[in-house]
């Protein structure tokens, strides 16, 4: 049970977070949280991101990277100012897509992927990029059925995905797979199209069969990042991102809790501070339009909200 003190602390936040606290933790009626949600477009982080949109519908002049970038950056310096990252943030924060009326059409005309100059809404070859694009396009009202089908045809034999498939990789990646299933779930929830549900379930099975943290071959932990509790999620697999997804997917599917996720869930629960908050676990490098949340080691409103919501789903599940 979230304490009154923590709930009050969470409500003293940017509209992008406050409306979700009101809806998902306080169970307030839509008459309360809808006006808060509408504030995203006119104040705080959401308004800041909107203010940086280019006349051609893009952000920073590029699809995945800023137009000023002339070479691929080191992973720790990935910028998050270009179109795909910005749309993903606005969608996940809950901006009403009508605020971006006309953006989908502008991107169809003006935006091309840095990879092979491919049209924006067609996607490219990277699983993680395509997952964000699939969800963002559906959110903006584009017909994304062609890209949804791409995930079925590009799933690997073990049930997941790997962004390095184009280089010949035939073994799935935790990172690529968590992003794929998140994109597919968002697409289904936005459109009602269940044609890729089986592909999503196979990807979730890939992760759950490994208990969200272990190698199938040796039983060893795949990486210390499976313990990471961090927001924003960005591209990597993390503990919070995985627990958030599997609890959301189970709730959406009307499915019982999968016991194979229990260890990860309890690791998340155990990370709660004595005062009922969770600390920020990491900060990804690279340019951003806004400074997200707090420094690592400090109590984080976003992390606390996401952890509380995920545990609430789990504890309320069968």
Word description of this protein:
With 318 residues, the protein is an all-alpha fold. Helices cover 46% and strands 0% of the residues. It has 13 helices and no strands. It has helices at residues 4-11, 15-24, 30-38, 44-51, 83-93, 103-110, 127-139, 145-153, 174-191, 197-208, 239-253, 262-270, 301-316. The chain is globular and about 50 Å long. The model has no long low-confidence stretch (mean pLDDT 96).
What is the overall shape? globular
Show unreliable segments. Answer: none
C-alpha termini separation: 18 Å
**Alpha plus pi helix count:** 13
In short:
The protein has 318 residues and is mainly alpha-helical.
Tags for this entry?
mainly alpha; 13 helices; 46% helix
Topology:
Blueprint: H1 4-11, H2 15-24, H3 30-38, H4 44-51, H5 83-93, H6 103-110, H7 127-139, H8 145-153, H9 174-191, H10 197-208, H11 239-253, H12 262-270, H13 301-316
Helix pairs in contact: 2-3, 5-7, 7-9, 9-10, 9-11, 11-12, 11-13
